[in-house]
């Protein structure tokens, strides 16, 4: 959420001003707090406004003066509700931060994009810790969120997306990480989510309408080793160097900020569970009882990791999409889990940071791509890991897992394991297929059955061994040698 991010960055600058501002709101404290905020949001008049209010300060952050500076010839119009925060120094290195207001953001660039983000209410209350430079605790809720967007491509065709959420709730906590940075836990939930999309499939084709709806969703995540000070320092650098010439002159400072702040975060783990999914298409509704997505992403660390899994249960396709004889074979539960491992993200990051040292206007030499690839893949390959995967319905269940090592200068090698329960019952369904379909399926199915190992529970097993380049063994039989 970009508006939520703006709020978080806004209150984060309190970390650098807690000692300067008195526990009771005073004009002097307001002036000092204003100067601190201007370090991160600039000194354009009207953007930052801080006034004493009771024991704290009313902070207003208004981007309108900045939007007014956009040249008329650019043809862009931007507007955004001013963010209003009530901040109170608790006297122990923490601040209470409260925000309660509607939000409205609009962007218009004719012929390119029209966008609006609005909500009836954004209500947040949290405790910001000046030592951690993030919220130690934070609770937010958004009511009736609307996101509308129309994008026009260079061919003049438009795509529209209209999203609605009845409620979105967010909670977070943070604690210091002994190795540096902070560890954050995050939790989201939402109700009555819809997204209507209209987009052309091909130039000149009529737009295709699709609606995605979820009855509810929940999401949980954790960020470990997050270096909030790097984000603040980078933001201050942009404010201090507002034009390309200034950025070019001070590029070494940005290099040092990023280099000294690596890995910026150690690991991000996030999982989303959606209930009651419906995708309305021109051929009918696609529904699922649950949709689950998990993502893990390491920061700029030596042992890189990118993992994603997508699972669906209770899947149903529109009636009539498949021939009746294929419907019993359609899986209703599915899970795909894969990851990239064995790459050096910090090594690649340091090579990229070396671009800051290039002379103005110069480009990296022809050796740069090789240096970057060597740093990213010091062993010459990357591991593609397939976690526990699944396809199944009431008749059968197919599961798999495996690992492949591949690189630009080496043949892929790896191992895998596939099991299937319900093979005989599935063969009964195959036997009822039309003869022309059965004639194509039976040779493949028969070969698979012929090389399978029968396990104690009656399921079939295929052990895959491709560790030697140029071979592909299944249960000891080299299929490459059969060609």
As a percent range, the share of helical residues equals: 10-25%
Q: Separation of termini? A: 54 Å
Relative strand content: over 45%
Summarize the biggest pleated sheet. 21 strands, antiparallel
Count of extended strands = 21
- What is the gyration radius calculated from CA atoms? 28 Å
Number of helices: 10
Mean pLDDT: 91
Low-confidence stretches: 1-13, 18-22
Shape: globular
Helix-and-strand structural type: alpha+beta
Structure write-up:
With 483 residues, the protein is an alpha+beta fold. Helices cover 22% and strands 47% of the residues. The protein has ten helices and 21 strands. It has a 21-stranded antiparallel sheet that branches. A hairpin with a 5-residue loop joins β8 and β9. The radius of gyration is 28 Å and the shape is globular. The two termini are 54 Å apart. The N terminus is likely disordered.
Summarize the structure.
Helices cover about 20% and strands about 45% of the residues. It is α+β, with helices and mostly antiparallel strands and about 475 residues long.
Could you give the topology of this structure?
Blueprint: H1 2-12, H2 27-41, E1 48-53, E2 56-61, H3 64-67, E3 77-80, E4 83-89, E5 94-109, E6 113-129, E7 134-152, E8 158-176, E9 182-200, E10 207-226, H4 228-240, H5 244-249, H6 251-261, E11 267-281, E12 284-298, E13 305-313, E14 333-341, H7 345-353, H8 368-376, E15 382-392, E16 397-407, E17 410-421, H9 423-431, H10 435-451, E18 453-454, E19 460-466, E20 473-474, E21 477-478
Antiparallel strand pairs: 1-2, 2-4, 3-5, 4-5, 5-6, 6-7, 7-8, 8-9, 9-10, 10-11, 11-12, 12-13, 13-14, 14-15, 15-16, 16-17, 17-19, 18-19, 19-20, 20-21
